[in-house]
Amino acid sequence: MTTLTMKDEKRLEVIQRVDRKELTVGQAALVMGLSERQCYRVKARVIKAGAKGVVHGHRGRPCKRRLKDSTVWRVLELARGKYQGVNDHPLTEKLNEQEQISLSPEKVGRILRAGGIGSPRKRRGIKHRSRRERRPAEGMMLQVDGSPHDWLQARGPRLSGAADDATSKVTGGLFTQAESSWGYFTDREDRGFDSTTTHTIGL
Length: 203
Prior knowledge:
With 203 residues, this protein is mainly α. The chain folds into three domains: 6-54; 69-114; 142-201, no CATH class. It contains eight helices and three strands, in the order ααααααβββαα. A three-stranded antiparallel β-sheet has the order 1-2-3, with helices on one face. α2 (25-32) packs across α3.
């Protein structure tokens, strides 16, 4: 007696449609999320064994990597007693070094959680960052930065400039050999930059 899941029933229906020439093997493989080679194998099993051919051969068999119950109980016993309060990773190291129980931290964590033992150290909550609101009026704040673009095509210095935080209007710009406080604080009119020039440069 074979019990089919909904997934098995869908695969059986698709294979039957392939057998009736309503679908190609390629189309069936796409529907089932398999490769064409896997689809041919499923079709061959259905032809040989009927409906149970869609059931995976390992279903119902115990996992070879499953831990022995005695190992699970030993880990829980140590976690509640000798190593009480120890976090998953240090506990994994203790089990390996002192108890000769070789497990991964993930496996140890799953054993502890399944046994009702939570992590002693709580994870920090995720900080939610929000974007800073722009200033409500023009002139309250200037944003200054250097431009990454090579405006003079390697024939001259780099551009540093300022833009209004509220409106994003470019308020000034100055070509300097390198970004510096001097470049940002130098009066643009004294350097020969009028508002028209700086606006057309853009940042």
